[in-house]
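Hey, I'm writing a tutorial for new members on how sequence and structure tokens pair up, and I'd like a real worked example in the thread rather than a made-up one. If someone can provide the structure for the chain below, I'll link this post from the tutorial.
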Amino acid sequence: MLKNSEVHQSKLFALLRTLNKKEVRELSLWLQSPVHNSSEEVRLLYEGLKSKDKSFRRPIDKLSLLKFINITPSDKNGTHLSPKEEKTLREVMHRLTGQVQDFIVWKDFKAKKNKLGYHTTNAFLGRKLYKYLPHQLEKSRRELETKPHRDIDYFEGTFLLKEIELILNIILNNRGKKTEYQSTIDSLRHLYLSKLLRYYCAAISHEKMLQVKYDYPFIDFVKQYIEGSTDKEVPAIGVYFYLLKLIETSKPDDYYDLKNYLFERLDLFDIHEVRQLFNHLTNYCNLMIKAGKQEFVREQHEIYKQGLALKCWSTQLNFSNHQFTHIIKNALQLGENQWADTFVEKYQRELAATVREDMVNYYFALKHFHQKDFDKAQGCLRRISQSEDFTYTLNFKILSLKIHYESNTLTIDNLDSHPMNYELETMRQNVSVRNKRMSEIFRQAYSNFVNVFRRILDRKKKRIIGEQLSADSIKRLENDLPKISPLVEKEWLEAQIEALKKSRI
């Protein structure tokens, strides 16, 4: 059959969709060069695809692909390809896939100038062009020093050049320079300490999130060494040293140490690395907020503002919709409604078209909920389409449940027929089944919300039918809540328990 499903979902189209406008043009030149490509069919197929849709997102059938390479299908009705035609098309697509892959690798390689300089220098060394190596080494060093960042890539480039310089000195019997070994060892230490610390941070964070355990035989020695060493002034070492302390201790002092260290050196890190570090800071703020330390709501807001100024979450094709949600929730929690309106107005255009309308409706639903305008909030939620991302689906359901609960539309006449009952049961079913795409800790967090919400709702129903709530009944809820982990919307649940408690008085 000539249907698109297997074609448009192929690796070829996935690779092509990663190209920007400039790379789409450059790939044409790449395929025209006999050094890279000797197949005219491959070039024709690419040019045909490009002429059809330069974003490579529009569906296309096999018949069109075959015509691009100047082959007329044997089936006059144009409904089937012969086995030979299928094989030909498959082979040409396979060769084009290889060319696109090689082009992407070359682009990535070329972009890393410090490593490109290293490989050029290493090639000269391998071909015994010793006479030209000092000049090439100096050129590579200058390229490296022009890099604004002092991150792990910088220290990797420094070590690689030091290593070649050391080898060259040994080859040329220039052993008089006693410092060469020392500087090479120093650059190697900086490289591997920074890498080791970054992996420690990632692994220990993973441990805490998924309740697994890894082995770190050198971690105590590394921490003790860095604590008393000037190496912590090396940005790529210091920032992960302070992050490691924060991950291990969760102390506010360690949070501020990391934040201050990072904010004083923001220009020394690649924007993608800054984004990851900011995520660690905001995650810690979330922990503190859940522990009742409301000053961290403002801290989180300041990090978001700094991240927006640096364009942390808009470096890709689209603004991160996950971060968009975090930012609007934080602003509304602070009562920064005008700031939130400005943010949404400015950044909604940068969201992916597939989620833009839903994200904006979700924002206004949240805003109206915070303003206690429950009818408008529900109206905005009803305009949201069914999301393929289960995270958003669950968040939309939770907001709907909160709106129903706080709107006080539950009466003695609709105790069993109120939409809240159906929505709660639907959510329970969604999170009760283990989903391969949903981590167990994530599933438990939402499952626990359902269970606690149901207990609160049961007590509210008793109040509505005139049944007196005992102090012990409320106390059990209060005592159980701190023990339930993981749990989403913990602060809101606490507030509803407190409201039930006051209703008894």
